[in-house]
């Protein structure tokens, strides 16, 4: 159980990127009428930003 | 015979009979130049004055803690239903997240109700609700804060030592940097200390911390994927970060900088003048009083400082700021 929770926290930045950053980006874009490039949806754009950002954070240990 | 030559008082004792050529005080002096009798008298006087400022009305802390927590909770349904101005909710949430530490801090020192008193439950309840907005469970907050008092400014044992920075700008940056997932600062540092402690209380605090963090994430994810990411960000996510940075800066860095080597009783914290004033710096201008007497509630530390100022000055404390 403890190992599972530890693993969950290790991958938390990736989950946060998908679970929160992505929909937040999408909803902010919709709120301010920003159209994503290449005809993709705001949520797809959010996922394209949020997921890699979270993954990089897991590897680097820092969001910025 | 010159003045510097030693005076032989008892030639039969050899070197032991040599009087020192340089005059020394009869009693050893402390770093502030006071002998131990003076120090003892000053301490008695200091304690008598400090005693007058202990206790007092603590119910406003409880009202503030529960009131703010209830209002903050109401922001979630109101935000989801579009019944509240999100800008206002954001500003208030930042205030609640930051101010919650003050009410929780009184509970950490059992100033609202000591063990065995009738108001003990209130003390524990105030502590429990106050730091939920910053996702910092009371069990961990109390343990780490008391460790900070026991080992103030010790680079290894003081859990808050990671907040140290060479200047204010760097201190603000560090409040953010220390929260990064791969950096051993703030809550990560706390988690490591708790794991090393290995006591049942530490294990419980660690468990509660993980639980609260999981609840926090679950709420953010659920709200975000239900179409309320902006509401979640403005009511909880951003206020938490702003509150934590403000708390770290004003409650940890500002009153303790510089920390290096400042472990003695009268040098653990500074008396300083905040640009934001007494209230907005959360009473931290006179934080030294809190370290000397944690039983004096936050709202009385300034008065206590003014009453103790002459004694602190004699003790070598720099009281020029206030």
Automatic annotation (TrEMBL), chain A:
<feature type="transmembrane region" description="Helical">
    <location>
        <begin position="12"/>
        <end position="32"/>
    </location>
</feature>
<feature type="transmembrane region" description="Helical">
    <location>
        <begin position="38"/>
        <end position="59"/>
    </location>
</feature>
<keyword id="KW-0472">Membrane</keyword>
<protein>
    <submittedName>
        <fullName>Uncharacterized protein</fullName>
    </submittedName>
</protein>
<keyword id="KW-1133">Transmembrane helix</keyword>
<keyword id="KW-0812">Transmembrane</keyword>
Automatic annotation (TrEMBL), chain B:
<feature type="transmembrane region" description="Helical">
    <location>
        <begin position="214"/>
        <end position="238"/>
    </location>
</feature>
<feature type="region of interest" description="Disordered">
    <location>
        <begin position="11"/>
        <end position="33"/>
    </location>
</feature>
<dbReference type="GO" id="GO:0008610">
    <property type="term" value="P:lipid biosynthetic process"/>
</dbReference>
<dbReference type="InterPro" id="IPR012171">
    <property type="entry name" value="Fatty_acid_desaturase"/>
</dbReference>
<dbReference type="InterPro" id="IPR005804">
    <property type="entry name" value="FA_desaturase_dom"/>
</dbReference>
<keyword id="KW-1133">Transmembrane helix</keyword>
<feature type="transmembrane region" description="Helical">
    <location>
        <begin position="125"/>
        <end position="144"/>
    </location>
</feature>
<keyword id="KW-0472">Membrane</keyword>
<dbReference type="GO" id="GO:0016020">
    <property type="term" value="C:membrane"/>
</dbReference>
<protein>
    <submittedName>
        <fullName>Beta-carotene hydroxylase</fullName>
    </submittedName>
</protein>
<feature type="transmembrane region" description="Helical">
    <location>
        <begin position="59"/>
        <end position="80"/>
    </location>
</feature>
<keyword id="KW-0812">Transmembrane</keyword>
<dbReference type="Pfam" id="PF00487">
    <property type="entry name" value="FA_desaturase"/>
</dbReference>
<feature type="domain" description="Fatty acid desaturase">
    <location>
        <begin position="88"/>
        <end position="317"/>
    </location>
</feature>
<dbReference type="GO" id="GO:0016717">
    <property type="term" value="F:oxidoreductase activity, acting on paired donors, with oxidation of a pair of donors resulting in the reduction of molecular oxygen to two molecules of water"/>
</dbReference>
<feature type="transmembrane region" description="Helical">
    <location>
        <begin position="86"/>
        <end position="104"/>
    </location>
</feature>
